[in-house]
């Protein structure tokens, strides 16, 4: 999965449980939003896989449709 820095759009590295942009020297945490209503999705962890659930009636959201955004830590 590509994680691009929201500031400089360079590829970020996964490091110690968060994403790190070497260019900006910033740490980001990944948030998943519903593509239909924009509300943060609930993460359901099962058997090593993660499913995303919209609590506003859109049900399970396929990872391909999830809108990821990155929040500065
Ligand atoms: Zn950056
Ligand atoms: Zn939704």
Automatic annotation (TrEMBL):
SUPFAM superfamilies noted in UniProt: YfgJ-like (SSF161187)
Organism domain of life: Bacteria
Name of the molecule in the record: Zinc ribbon domain-containing protein
Annotated source species: Serratia aquatilis
